[in-house]
Structures are given as C-alpha cells and as structure tokens.
C-alpha cells in the first residue's frame, strides 16, 4: 500500500533527519522508498520540507500532488502545506508552534505540545523524534521496533545517553498519538 508523508518545519528542527529515519527504517524491512528533500537557502530558520513515499511495489516518481500524512512543526509550514493533505489524511501538529485553528474537517488531526514534551525529556532537539513516534503510532506506517532500530543506527556513534534520549522521545510520541486517538 502506497503512503506518502510530508515532514515540514524550519531548518534546524530535524525535518530532514526524521524523513531519512522513516525512509531508512522502511527500506530495511524491504519496502520501496523515495525521499525528496526541499529547503530554502538558509541553514537555520528557513523553510524545510521532505517527502517520503513508502510502498510495497516499485515507486515510479517521488513527486506527489497530495500527501496521506502531513507533519508540521511550525506555523509557517502548516499554512504553507495544509492544502497538500489529501481528504481523509492525517495532520500532526506541534501545538506549541502551530497557533492557527485547523478549519479542515475532512482530515484527522493530532495536536501535540511537542516542545513541552521535549523539554520534559531534557532536550528540545528531540521534537522531530516525538513527531516521528506520533506518526508511527497513529498510522502503523512503520513499526515502533523498526523505527527504534533506525534511531540506534543513526546515533550509534554518539554516547549511549543520546541514543536512550531519542528512544524515549520515540516512545513519548507513540504514547501521545495513542492517547489522542
């Protein structure tokens, strides 16, 4: 089954890293995957977006008209990309930074105070991993175990405390999504 996910936010929020981890985890379990990054010229603070398509069969093009899942870490990305979400799709918002009222009634919405959760964990840099966990928990697009393995590989060269922090962030995202659903 073909599923497309758009991760969006600002440069420096780990948008590309979240997309890469999802793509790698899906690839490791034998899925066909495309990863398409898009970002402005700014290194930090500019617009950042990536599209990940996961399918059981070969993917012909990494381009999509509408996505199945949209993850927005800030207000700017919500306003810019909300129209690209399919009817019946899933919208996951960081309610600490997306302050607009969601007026779409044709999509499922998960609104999480991701920045607050990250602060509770002791590091604001894990907000992207929390959102990735929420996506996995809400959609089943990839198993939590496969994502955990992807995180372990990504942070293998770091201290064990960094690996553990990111695994906790993944778990918090999974729990938050299940609590909302």
Sum up the overall morphology in one term: globular
Distance between the termini: 22 Å
Q: How are the strands of the largest sheet arranged?
A: 2-3-1-4-5-6
How many helical stretches?
6
Q: What helical percentage do the residues reach? A: 40-55%
Element pattern in H and E: EHEEEHEEHHHH
Low-confidence stretches: none
Given helix and strand content, the structural type is alpha/beta
> What is the radius of gyration?
15 Å
Mean pLDDT: 94
Question: What topology does this entry show?
Answer:
Layout: E1 3-10, H1 15-28, E2 32-39, E3 47-55, E4 67-72, H2 75-81, E5 85-94, E6 108-112, H3 114-121, H4 127-139, H5 144-154, H6 160-180
Parallel strand pairs: 1-4, 4-5, 5-6
Antiparallel strand pairs: 1-3, 2-3
Helix pairs in contact: 1-4, 1-5, 3-4, 3-6, 4-6, 5-6
Concise overview:
The chain has helices spanning 15-28, 75-81, 114-121, 127-139, 144-154, 160-180, and strands spanning 3-10, 32-39, 47-55, 67-72, 85-94, 108-112.
Describe the structure.
With about 180 residues, the chain is α/β, with parallel strands linked by helices. The protein is built from six helices and six strands, in the order E-H-E-E-E-H-E-E-H-H-H-H. It has helices at about 15-30, 75-80, 115-120, 125-140, 145-155, 160-180, and strands at about 5-10, 30-40, 45-55, 65-70, 85-95, 110. A six-stranded mixed β-sheet has the order 2-3-1-4-5-6, sandwiched between helices. Helix 2 (about 75-80) links the parallel strand 4 (about 65-70) and strand 5 (about 85-95). Helix 4 (about 125-140) crosses helix 6 (about 160-180) and helix 5 runs antiparallel to helix 6 (about 160-180). The mean pLDDT is about 95.
